[in-house]
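Backbone-to-sequence.
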């Protein structure tokens, strides 16, 4: 199964996802089996546009509008091909030390924890795989980014997608 992982799109009402994401990333999203979004869409319009591209599983973030906070959970756990994946927006205050995220993943009973909030990609594997896709639209200190995961026979492989201009490049971060 092919998944695209996004977070922190931060698009206000009237801002279209289609004009803020590179065309190549939109193509990757359309060809995925599932989109996982770790919150901070900001607007219902952004959520709806993303949902129009592929099946979407998402949580709300701390800057999402009231409609999204009512619609989406704070945490989500899904299982894909025997792999339990947790999704949360803000698992801890800083990205310096991921101990809190590992404990949260154990508390949630997941093999993989996807989180947002930090706007830069993180891929760390210990007994649990911790993944933050960064932000494809509002990266802050990092390049715009997203992630692509493939899950097959309980194995996970993935890539960080770095997006600049209207192109994306891939960097593999490991196989599980």
């Amino acid at each position: 199964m092919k998944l695209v992982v996004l977070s922190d799109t931060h698009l206000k009402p009237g801002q279209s996802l289609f004009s803020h994401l590179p065309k190549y990333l939109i193509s990757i999203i359309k060809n995925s089996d599932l989109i996982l979004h770790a919150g901070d869409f900001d607007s219902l319009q952004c959520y709806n546009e993303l949902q129009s591209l592929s099946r979407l599983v998402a949580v709300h973030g701390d800057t999402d509008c009231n409609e999204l906070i009512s619609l989406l959970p704070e945490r989500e756990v899904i299982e894909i091909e025997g792999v339990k994946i947790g999704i949360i927006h803000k698992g801890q205050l800083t990205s310096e030390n991921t101990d809190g995220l590992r404990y949260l993943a154990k508390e949630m009973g997941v093999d993989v924890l996807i989180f947002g909030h930090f706007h830069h990609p993180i891929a760390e594997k210990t007994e649990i795989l911790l993944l933050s896709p960064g932000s494809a639209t509002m990266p802050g200190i990092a390049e715009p980014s997203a992630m692509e995961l493939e899950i097959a026979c309980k194995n996970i492989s993935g890539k960080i997608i770095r997006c600049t201009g209207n192109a994306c490049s891939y960097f593999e971060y490991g196989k599980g």
